[in-house]
From TrEMBL, chains A, B:
It comes from the Eukaryota. The keyword Ribonucleoprotein does not apply. GO terms for molecular function: ATP binding; proline-tRNA ligase activity. Keywords: Aminoacyl-tRNA synthetase, ATP-binding, Ligase, Nucleotide-binding. One of its GO terms (biological process) is prolyl-tRNA aminoacylation. Pfam families: HGTP_anticodon, tRNA-synt_2b. This is Aminoacyl-transfer RNA synthetases class-II family profile domain-containing protein. Residues 40-59 are annotated as: Disordered.
Length: 451, 451
């Protein structure tokens, strides 16, 4: 059944250099379901040590790398490409697709409809709103074969020629955003739409168990009358936030500087004090008013035949940044922790090490995997860790490092009269022995995002 | 409940000009579920006439437009952006997402794993394989703020500076592809992988009921020992295919020209004759051998410690092209037909026109919609056509033009002792009266792709 091939330098097709961290992968053919031995890459052998990662990343990345970025390199979740751009490898790609499904669902629930816009955009749009010059050298510009000016649109998949890309996915030159625009005929209705979207954002962050704070912010270059940032509290965050110790109201340092009255008037209504903290900006919402609708003539024809400029709202979530910064905040130096719903695979089954009980244990693991996979909400969620040259203990540590939420160990106790499995709830830090029926019942109830 | 706003020129934010086809949209707030009146755009009023589309497209598009492209403009499925690039609007976006899910599922089933690659790529990769020069001006090149050479990578989301973009999504400057690479340690194993992928492609095309022919082809600039194109037979296709009348073997005209023996030797084994037909290339597979693995040192370390260059296969499906050309082939001049599984919404319920039975009919329609939507496979699949200023007959024609597979009319017969609905299976051309239970049971069995 197993036909092992070790592959060296498999990544070089993608990465224009040998990838020192990820040199070896084994493939087992004919495995019916997902196994660690079929994963690409990084799940076969133990992850490289922290020292290896540090040494390798110093030569690859001139920019600073934060904790989550080092972890992602160590675990084979990303691979650097050009400066400020990254390949996302299978595990991270799965997690990102889950996040996109969660965002899609949230947006569908408030009646938003999805469109896609091309990356290549004619210069004329950006010139009409003066943003060709305002955005300056941050805009990546190019000419086509007819010498026409184009730019890589900073909407949808976003491009930004960062002066100093750093922290990997947190501040890259190419990243993914979810954008949303609302159009209303009056400011009052636009405010209703605005609040509905803000509420949906907060609800979604809550569903992901992320401590994200809504912060009153400066509208900056975008313009408009009202704006909020959604900040994930983190030491490595570059934005300073002022939070009231009493009522929890938060405003950005920028806003406090440019409009000191915003700080004062809030304080008058509340006896609390302002404390400083730092955050990573995950999302931003703007009540734009008519700034862009005037320029581009987005007008509404009312029932009374009056024509008015549309009141716009614009809203963005940094998709890759959300995931990267969530990992940054939730993980330790050695253990990746995902927002649990977004872990690439929810369940990992670990069978015995090579030895006298090996075959039977593998067969029980396969049968359990098959039963679990047959449930539609566990589609592709259950992988089998068949690195049977490594001890169960060693694999347990590696799987905990990868942050799979539920681990099932097919150990010696499955040979007893009442077969028992060791069941680990990694995120709760609980271990217990459960029967097969109890495991199936427990995992029938977990939330998943099918991708 | 209904609070109508007519919106003029809503598109101008996106399209840098007024969109003459899509000037009016009505929004009903507080509608709990999907309604035509909430769709953006095109579902509210009747579609524009063919003459309006022709007139408008002549001014917007210097390039030729084929049937499917005109239909998509007419129905508000796409909107032109810069030359050779398009906005995909909500209905088409849904359909494309369904196609991507089908492709993902197909690829997962053969054990493929998904990675994403950045659009921005350093010149060095393309220079190493000489493709920077070979691809020449088809490659979109740019410089960053450090004056470093970059290109928009022709992998993943693909960019190609077409000399003459035409037929909209069929030959654009920016389009989406699904790529796949296989790596094996020996040619024999690589051939097994190659055949497995080809088989999966054909199986998927069959699932979509598309008449796609596997054609032996020239490897061209890609190199390698074996290659096949997957051609959708169509009059507007630009590729000439030779098909044997007897055994069905197909080879590309290019291959027959460059390697006349490929034609001869096949004919020797079969008494059939070659006939010429034209097709649209939807996918291409290459058994590449070691051409790229040699350059980039993608090597395998075998069990006997021997190091060999990997045998590569490379495979691509034109995602947006597949959908556009399927629509081209399946549609008439006036009626869009999708691969049924990929229709943006499977079911449309049409309630009564404004009049004495209006309220009751709408309430029955809403309740039926709610019951259907509660089934997980019908998530977001059921829309309610509430354009109640239009007669049922008029809306029936429009819905048939849009190609929703199943229509349910809440007509006078729901007032009878045994309430009956008119049920239309659009793709089979069948109409019948069914009870509510019969409809629910019938629609419980349809195949859908949840997005």
């Amino acid at each position: 059944m197993v036909d092992i091939i070790k592959v060296k330098g498999l990544y070089s097709m993608c990465v224009r250099r040998h990838a020192p961290l990820l040199t070896t992968i084994e493939r087992y053919y004919h495995a019916k379901h997902l196994r660690t031995s079929r994963m690409f890459p990084g799940l076969v052998s133990s992850p490289p040590t922290r020292q290896q990662v540090d040494k390798s990343s110093r030569s690859q990345f001139p920019e600073t790398l934060c904790k989550s970025q080092k972890l992602m390199l160590q675990m084979g979740l990303i691979q650097g490409a050009a400066a400020g751009t990254f390949y996302t490898l299978p595990l991270l790609t799965r997690s990102l697709e889950k996040l996109k499904r969660v965002i899609d669902r949230t947006m569908q629930n408030i009646g938003a409809q999805k469109v896609t816009t091309p990356c290549l955009a004619p210069a004329s749009i950006w010139k009409a709103s003066d943003r060709w010059d305002v955005m300056g050298s941050e805009l990546l510009k190019l000419k086509d074969r007819q010498e026409k000016d184009l730019c890589l649109a900073p909407i949808g998949r976003k491009f930004r020629d960062e002066m100093r890309p750093k922290n990997g996915l947190l501040r890259g030159r190419e990243f993914e955003m979810k954008d949303l625009y609302t159009f209303d005929a009056s400011l009052k209705e636009a405010e209703v739409s605005y609040n509905e979207v803000c509420e949906a954002y907060l609800q979604m962050f809550k569903e992901l168990h992320l401590d994200i704070v809504k912060v009153e912010a400066d509208s900056g270059a975008m313009g408009g009358s009202k704006s909020h940032e959604y900040q994930l509290i983190s030491e490595i965050g570059e934005d300073t936030i002022l939070r009231c110790t009493k009522c929890g109201t938060s405003i950005s340092q920028e806003l406090a500087d440019s409009h000191p009255e915003s700080k004062k008037c809030l304080q008058e209504n509340c006896p609390g004090n302002w404390t400083e903290t730092t955050g990573i900006e995950i999302a931003h919402t703007f009540l734009l008013g008519t700034k862009y609708s005037k320029i581009f003539k987005a007008q509404a024809l009312l029932a009374n035949n009056k024509v008015v400029d549309m009141q716009m709202g614009c809203y963005g979530i940094g998709v890759s940044r959300l995931l990267a910064s969530a990992i940054e905040v939730l993980s330790t130096e050695e253990y990746i922790r995902w927002p649990q719903l977004l872990a690439p695979h929810q369940v990992c089954i670990i069978s015995q090490q090579t030895g006298h009980f090996f075959e039977e244990s593998l067969s029980i693991a396969e049968s359990l995997q098959e039963e679990l996979l047959s449930k539609s909400h566990l589609h592709n969620e259950v992988i089998l860790d068949d690195r049977h040259k490594l001890s169960i203990g060693k694999r347990l540590i590696i799987c905990e490092q990868f942050g799979f939420p539920y681990l099932i160990i097919v150990g010696k106790k499955v040979q007893e009269a009442t077969p028992l499995f060791e069941f680990v709830d990694v995120y709760k830090g609980e271990k217990q022995f459960l029967s097969r029926e109890q495991i199936v019942s427990r995992l029938s109830q977990i939330d998943t995002v099918v991708v």
